[in-house]
């Protein structure tokens, strides 16, 4: 069984020392968000994560959720329900929720750090609040006042939870194919009919009511993605004054048996003329859903980060304890029968890969989350617009790469344990299984990559990329005179230049052949992720070199940054080389000949 | 539930058309091994794999093995025992076994193709014969005549199975630490006492007797790896005439709960003064164990190959069926509501990665296995010695890289399925879980890498590498005039040159600092694997371009080779770059500061 200790020191370093969140919150007028308060909340969250959620992680995996076909109900694993009650009592469900609806209105970027802790402690459990957070976003932006009073408030207060019902058996990434229909009734409600699959938290025993946000088609809706509307379909029919009535005609039909996240229930939901309430405008449901996509995708990126950190903590502890072989340069602990694993360069390669990706990913993700705060609170319209563009650009990088790195780090961490990593009791294999879903749900890595390269870069003439390159360029200029920074600034500036050039090159190819976008996308996503992380690692070194930072942190950050630049950043070479070979080698082989 | 169809066409293409096994078998005097017979046997094996073993794969995973603590017995999953009985009846246990002991003496390289089928159909089940094969190797080379008559014959005939008992709780890779002791008795037997863990097939219900090969220390043995001897410890005491007696004092104490291969039992074995028989010379047990290492490690490499192929088959079928989105260059199947996944370049990238690694890995592994035949049957001593050196060099590449690629392909294949890949019923997630052990057992990837770079390359002045480079160079010279080959020959020749140069460079660094070996090892292993595969892909194109090969195969091989050279071979750049940064960035950070 593995333990979890929230990396408070590194979270604070990233948020305050590198990203400068204190000054930002002050500038945005977030008066609640004083450093004292935030530190106290963070400490409490760390306790909740480490003491309440982490001990339930293994049992959630071994017991899983149990479905009763007779009643359509789901029992979550032992302890999950009680932990949720404690979470509600502590006021955690509304920590970043709007104050007008019972929330505490703390910054989203701060909430992101808390999310990382919950996810690392117990990914399955944390999926329930995650989905609620998505519903909060949709209701906050698109809900009618009564819908906000009734549903938003109940979710912020944790009395009810939310879901997102998008996928159907025949359509996952391609929502244009969806068939669920919504027929208007005379009373202004809608009768929603159809089957949704892969519904996280579709049924559970945490709360009485569950608020499903459902994509469906109106009778006269145009085909494809332009004919999709969004509906609230509560488990219990809910009047406009908030009175909860009888059971609605929505029911969990079965639950999936999955590779991991066994404690997070994944439901088939059958809607059989269920009472629903239109949210937002007719046929604009996808736009409403997309509005909460940034936050939901960032949230899954944080899951990747969380798993990186949890895996890394386990691998580090084991590598320090486990004695095996002698160091090649002579015994390091001659009094012991062998040296600990951590003396061996290849173990260090795996550990430092995890450390550099996790700590780098933390800066990347927390910075992206600050853009949510800017979008919501900045006075200046242009600043809000810029933040929206930059966030749109960074979101697929955070979602796509942090989840891929989550899988990679879980892989390395398990490998550090040798045969013991493959055994359940050490908890490492659970992390690897849990991580595997994160590159799939909320849009696969391939979908993130198309979003990044197609929609967010080529369609916008590189507006987001230009902003990020400007950040790099300004940083490099500011640091150019510092001899301690030159080893990072030079390769970073070169990487940024090459990133821009590669993007232009793909753009030119894509004009000639639209297939070039899909052919380059995942490699471009990875390329972007590695350059972005190089920027944050350079920023970290600059931050830690400032007066007042402790020596151990300074050394650790500098050496990890050196490792990153030396051994991880060169991955960009491979991705650039692959991109430059173009689409031809992917498309030449006829589909019928793949098994020739 | 996923199906499995043995890739007979590609196996035969690799073995006969690319590697030229027919001529080799004739030259080695393997008169049994006629093409007609081999083809017939291969077809039968494919049926057994597809019809008997494959249908048991999912149930093996869901039911697993059951341990009864009261009796110390293990029940294998439903159907496993019956399948083994059928396997024995069919004479499969002795297919490559020595004829003098009831085997059929077919070539090991041919046996490797059969192994791939069994592994792909049902990895868990196939672990039982795999371990027996290891025991056969050890007994064949080091057993006394009576031990061969009794134990070897019974294993070849499938009446008993074998195990390898190396690992102890405190020592995995570092066998020098092992504590199990063997005390001589007056009757010439030994009393073996100790605890062994991770013993695959340590207890089961396939056969009455189980032949444990156990590493242990004699009372006067020197410390470390030079004081280890090898013993036969049967589950049932066995007299020199083969008479089976009472239960020996060896007992399964518990079984592990693992991430995957649930049908393959992993036991803790307690030896409590169990009767054992010394095999080989005192204190030379590790050498005896290493003698069967090549074959056992190749066998695990074949597991990686098998999983690549099974995963690829599943992903290809799904990608052809599942309709999702339109091709970026316009609908390819306008009559359908969407195009199948396989039109999308990124899906093709994943599929072609699997195809190129699996088919390339097959040539690499089968060629390596032919060296086992050369070592055993060649008349010329120098030829045998050369083959031994080359096999020693290739074995860690096959074991290390085919298992890493097995994991990679299982990852891609699951990803092609989207959310459905994460659900148990499709069978893809089982492949990913099963694959995860293969980079660990029989020596982790890190251990393979040290073996390749340290023992097999630097210590032997690159003797194995030189042989392989000579093969490449001769091939390139022979193909240099063929315009159809130039696109492969030029980059292959360059990759070979760079491989040699990189090796020399590491050698020079290692003289100055022994830590450079460990710092470079895994990247060097990967680098070697990618260049070796480039050679085999070029060979495949040359072979398929010859007269008489069908057009579909010619096209498929050429385009897959192009994909490989364009998009996979560039990974060498990243590995070379990482190696060239040296050990410093791995060793600089004090172990105490890793979590600073």
TrEMBL record, chains A, B:
E.C. code = 1.3.99.41
Q: Name one GO molecular function term.
A: oxidoreductase activity, acting on the CH-CH group of donors
> Which principal EC class is assigned to this enzyme?
oxidoreductase
User: Has keyword Oxidoreductase?
Assistant: yes
Domain Acyl-CoA oxidase/dehydrogenase middle, by residue range, is 164-272
* Pfam families, per the entry: Acyl-CoA_dh_1, Acyl-CoA_dh_C, Acyl-CoA_dh_M, Acyl-CoA_dh_N
Transmembrane spans: none
Identify the Gene3D superfamilies for this entry: Acyl-CoA dehydrogenase/oxidase, N-terminal domain (1.10.540.10), Butyryl-CoA Dehydrogenase, subunit A, domain 2 (2.40.110.10), Butyryl-CoA Dehydrogenase, subunit A, domain 3 (1.20.140.10)
Family recorded in the similarity comment:
Belongs to the acyl-CoA dehydrogenase family.
The UniProt function text for this chain reads:
Involved in the assimilation of dimethylsulphoniopropionate (DMSP), an important compound in the fixation of carbon in marine phytoplankton, by mediating the conversion of 3-(methylthio)propanoyl-CoA (MMPA-CoA) to 3-(methylthio)acryloyl-CoA (MTA-CoA).
Put simply, this protein is called 3-methylmercaptopropionyl-CoA dehydrogenase
Organism listed in the record: Arenimonas composti TR7-09 = DSM 18010
